[in-house]
Automatic annotation (TrEMBL):
It comes from Erythrocercus mccallii. CDD domains: PAN_AP_HGF. GO terms for molecular function: endopeptidase activity; signaling receptor binding. GO terms for cellular component: extracellular space. This is HGF factor. It holds the Pfam family PAN_1. Keywords: Disulfide bond, Kringle. Residues 8-94 form the Apple domain. Residues 98-131 form the Kringle domain. InterPro entries: Kringle, Kringle-like, Kringle_sf, Pan_app, Serine_protease_kringle.
């Protein structure tokens, strides 16, 4: 990242081409808007700008240039994947990553056991260790 260059928001996302997520659970939220680029979609999702939910992913319709911000991702219960040639799916890496970077303070993944299979301590528990 050179001086004067802006960081590309797409770096925070994992792209899966020709895939859309369909919500089976009706409580999951979606918001759509016409936007010209995936970079604009990513920036809004990263900042949660104008969204009433935490954006975990977005799907970009290349044909209509419409961004679909999602309150869920491919790992969420009540969601199914659908092959669709018009869409590219972008999921926030923080929510689909199965590894912890650094101390794990920002980890939002789904892994809850250690490499050796021991159940992790809940964040709201001070037993067996204090935080």
């Amino acid at each position: 990242e050179g001086k004067g260059r802006k960081r590309n928001s797409l770096h925070d996302f994992k792209k899966t081409g020709e895939l859309m997520l369909i919500k089976v659970n009706k409580t999951l939220e979606v918001k759509t808007k016409l936007l010209n680029t995936t970079e604009q979609c990513a920036k809004r999702c990263s900042r949660n700008k104008g969204l009433s939910f935490t954006c975990k992913a977005f799907a970009y319709d290349r044909v209509t240039k419409r961004c679909h911000w999602l309150s869920f991702n491919s790992l969420t219960n009540g969601v199914r994947k659908k092959q669709d040639h018009a869409f590219d799916l972008y999921e926030k890496k923080d929510y689909v990553r199965n590894c912890i970077i650094g101390k794990g303070a920002d980890y939002k993944g789904t892994v809850s056991v250690t490499r050796s299979g021991i159940q992790c301590q809940a964040w709201n528990s001070m037993i067996p260790h204090e935080h």
